[in-house]
Structure formats: structure tokens, C-alpha cells
Design brief:
Blueprint: H1 3-7, H2 14-41, H3 46-77, H4 80-107, H5 111-139, H6 141-144, H7 150-174, H8 177-195, H9 214-225, H10 229-258, H11 264-289, H12 298-321, H13 330-335, H14 339-366, H15 373-400, H16 405-433
């Protein structure tokens, strides 16, 4: 029996895994339903669609930047399982707000003045929720798992997250928006119930007084965390990776509609392929490393990711030479020349990305002091959310300047080179430090 199979049978891991899976499913069902509905049913030009997608991404990411220090302190000072339950209870309320926005948009009631603001408010609150869960879902693993199980547990959490994104994306692309409004409420209730089964995870060490000054706390948290070279390069590598991911996710919906002439069901299919690929990469790298936490495959993985992004760009340009005149259904898209190549490029981007990032999260939880694990993840969230906001702003600026979305893919490809350099620096720091 494999380590992964054993973990999925045990209460010290399964309830957390299910809670995180349901959380990722619900977030993605809501976000994808909202973005696809607005892009396909409200706006009708590429610039506005790209701008809305970028604004939505920035709103979701911004809470990570300003609240992660508070979230990390709380997670190390309080019972992590109790925080999970409180946050999941709050999710029910914020999904009621999101469902109201989806319903009003579906009915065409005050779309610009009320429905879209409600949708964006709920998205922002979803970001707040994820900010407080983020440090916990990784920091709790070394507390409940043996050291030899941490990489497998991290890989399962990542794979489960992307399988949940897969399921949420499929539903968002195929079910009516009013069904999605009901679905996010039901899922939030089930998620709260599973969170009640997560075993207690009390603080490991007594910490100083909670610092409520979020700016001062954020600066202190980052300064106190980044002194270790391995953690320093792991955080920078993760941050730059998610900057690339943020830009790609902003580009996908308008690119699918305006470049590939794909329906929202096909746009949903693209996100599904991406999610499956990251899940494959997450599990594959654990098999390659045989449970050892190492960054040895990270530089090559992100170089491969960049190559697939360039290939995706080339195929998109070739697609434009024989562009359909109307939006394609899934069956029409699959029968179109180069469709299989497009999907293989997306799958390659995602598999390589999953292989790159999963060991880096395991680095953060195994190379730091156990009583500071949540704060280390929080410091990571502060830095990578700032980088993702910068990526979103860059995408917004390019859209405002009229740069076609397909050309923006080259920005993502170029960023992979710098990410590979960071991965190489991390591996060197790992070799210098030696085994744990």
C-alpha cells in the first residue's frame, strides 16, 4: 500500500483533504461561473473582457498581500482546526452574497450597478477566506504527518485541489448560472460539516502577542522568514511561478473567445485540461523524488513549461490564419484542425507547472521551525500575492494599450526563464545545506 493510499484512509489527513477539496471546488465553481458569464453574456469586446478578468484576479489576490501576516500569526497561535471551522462557517455567508450577484446577473437586474459589484465583493471575500486557510493547509501537515509523509501529503493536497478545480470548472462551463448560484451555497454547507472532523492541531509553541498592525506585521514577518537561503529562494520561486500562472489565467477566457472563437464550454474545457495537468504533475514529481523533498527537477520543469507556452502561442497564431467565423461548440472545436495540438500544449504547460511548484511548498514546511510553519507559508503568500498583483496589473496595462491577448503569452514564456534561474539557485542552496 502506498503512502498516499494510507493517508487517504486516516482521520489525521482525510477530513483536511476533503475540506480543502470542497473549498477549491466551491471557489472555482463561483469564480469560473462569474467570469464566464460576464465575459460571454455582459461584455462584447476583447479589451473590456481582458480588463474585467484582470480586475477580478487582482481583487481575489489582494487580501493575501494585506492579511497574510495576520493569518500566519493566528495559525501559529491558535488551534489550526478551530480556525478552519470558523473560516468555513463564514464561507456560507459570503457564498450567499455571491449567489445573489449571480442570480441578479442572470435575471438582468441592475447588472452594472448591483449584480457585478456583488459578484466582485464576494470574490474579494473569497480571497480573504483563502488567505486565512492558506497558511493552515500546508502548515498543519507536518503536525499530523510523519516527516516521510509530508511530500506525499503536500502532493495529495495539490492534486486534490486541482481535481476539485477540474470539477468546479466543468460545472461552471456546463450548468446554467442560476444552478451555480444554488450549488455554491450547498457546497459551502457541506465543507463546513467536513471541517468539523479535522483533528485538533494546537499551537506547538507559545508565541508573543498578536500584532494587529498589518503593515508592520507583514514587513516583520517577511524579514524574519527570508534569512534562510533555502526558504528565501523557495518563496521567490513560488511567487514568480504564480505570477506566470496569474497572467495565464487572465489571458485564457478572452483568448478562448476572441482568438480561438471557442464557446464558454470550450473555455471551461481548457481550464479542465490545465487542472488535470497540474494534478498529474503534482503526483508525478512525488514518484520521481520517491518522497524526498528536493528542488532538483524544478529548473528543468519550468523551462519545459516555457517551451510549451511558446508552442501554445505559435499554434494560436496558426489558428488565427484559419479562424472560425462563429463560436465553436465542444464537438466543433475538437474536429477543428490543430485542436489536439492546442490541448496537448495546455496539458504540457500544466504538467510541467505542477512538477515545478509542489516540491517548493514541501520545502517551506520541512525546512523551517515547526512552530513557525504557518508564518512561513504566510510570508510566502505575502510575497507571491504581491507578485501576482503585479502580474495582473501588467496584464491590465497591456490590455489597456491594445496589445492582443495572444501576444501577451510571450510575456509568460519569458518569465519562465527567470523562474528557472530561481529554481536553480534554490537547488544550489539545498546542496550546500545538505540533507535534513
Amino acid at each position: 500500500m502506498t503512502t498516499s493510499t494510507q493517508l487517504l484512509r486516516q482521520r489525521r489527513f482525510l477530513p483536511l483533504f476533503c475540506t480543502q477539496l470542497l473549498n477549491a471546488f466551491n471557489d472555482n465553481l463561483y469564480k469560473t461561473s462569474m467570469v464566464l458569464f460576464v465575459v460571454y453574456s455582459v461584455y462584447n469586446d476583447e479589451s473590456s473582457e481582458g480588463m474585467f478578468s484582470a480586475v477580478a484576479s487582482a481583487l481575489f489576490i489582494f487580501p493575501f498581500f494585506v492579511l497574510s501576516a495576520l493569518a500566519g500569526q493566528l495559525a501559529d497561535m491558535r488551534d489550526k482546526a478551530r480556525i478552519i471551522r470558523i473560516v468555513k462557517m463564514c464561507e456560507i455567508g459570503l457564498m450567499l452574497i455571491g449567489a445573489s450577484g449571480l442570480y441578479l446577473a442572470w435575471r438582468g437586474i441592475a447588472v452594472d450597478t448591483l449584480a457585478i459589484p456583488l459578484l466582485l465583493l464576494a470574490l474579494f471575500l473569497t480571497g480573504v477566506q483563502s488567505t486565512f486557510l492558506g497558511p493552515i493547509k500546508y502548515a498543519i501537515l507536518p503536525q499530523h504527518l510523519e516527516r516521510s509523509e509530508v511530500l506525499a501529503g503536500t502532493g495529495l493536497v495539490e492534486a486534490g485541489t486541482y481535481i476539485a478545480i477540474l470539477a468546479g470548472t466543468i460545472l461552471a462551463g456546463w450548468i446554467p448560472v442560476e444552478w451555480a448560484a444554488g450549488g455554491i451555497i450547498v457546497t459551502s454547507v457541506i465543507g463546513y460539516l467536513t471541517s468539523r472532523q479535522v483533528p485538533a492541531a494546537p499551537p506547538i509553541a507559545k508565541l508573543e502577542k498578536l500584532d494587529w498592525h498589518i503593515i508592520r506585521a507583514s514587513i516583520a514577518l517577511v524579514r524574519n522568514t527570508m534569512h534562510d537561503r533555502q526558504i528565501y529562494y523557495a518563496i521567490l520561486s513560488i511567487s514568480f511561478f504564480w505570477t506566470i500562472g496569474a497572467v495565464l489565467f487572465i489571458q485564457f477566457p478572452p483568448l478562448a473567445k476572441n482568438t480561438l472563437m471557442a464557446s464558454k464550454e470550450v473555455a471551461s474545457l481548457f481550464l479542465v485540461i490545465f487542472s488535470v495537468g497540474v494534478a498529474i504533475g503534482s503526483v508525478s514529481v512525488n514518484a520521481l523524488l520517491k518522497g524526498t523533498v528536493s528542488a532538483r527537477y524544478s529548473p528543468a520543469s519550468v523551462i519545459a513549461m516555457g517551451i510549451f507556452v511558446v508552442a501554445f502561442y505559435v499554434v494560436c497564431r496558426l489558428w488565427q490564419a484559419d479562424q472560425p467565423t462563429e463560436l465553436l461548440t465542444v464537438s466543433e472545436f475538437l474536429s477543428w484542425p490543430l485542436a489536439s495540438v492546442i490541448m496537448l500544449c495546455l496539458l504540457g504547460i500544466a504538467v510541467a507547472g505542477g512538477m515545478f511548484v509542489v516540491p517548493l511548498y514541501a520545502f517551506l514546511t520541512t525546512r523551517c521551525s515547526p512552530d513557525a510553519a504557518a508564518r512561513t507559508i504566510a510570508a510566502n503568500n505575502i510575497i507571491n500575492s504581491g507578485a501576482m498583483v503585479a502580474g495582473s496589473l501588467a496584464a491590465m496595462a497591456l490590455s489597456a494599450l491594445g496589445v492582443p491577448v495572444v501576444e501577451q503569452l510571450l510575456l509568460s514564456a519569458a518569465m519562465c526563464l527567470f523562474s528557472a534561474w530561481l529554481g536553480r539557485q534554490l537547488h544550489r542552496a539545498e546542496l550546500e545545506a545538505g540533507p535534513l
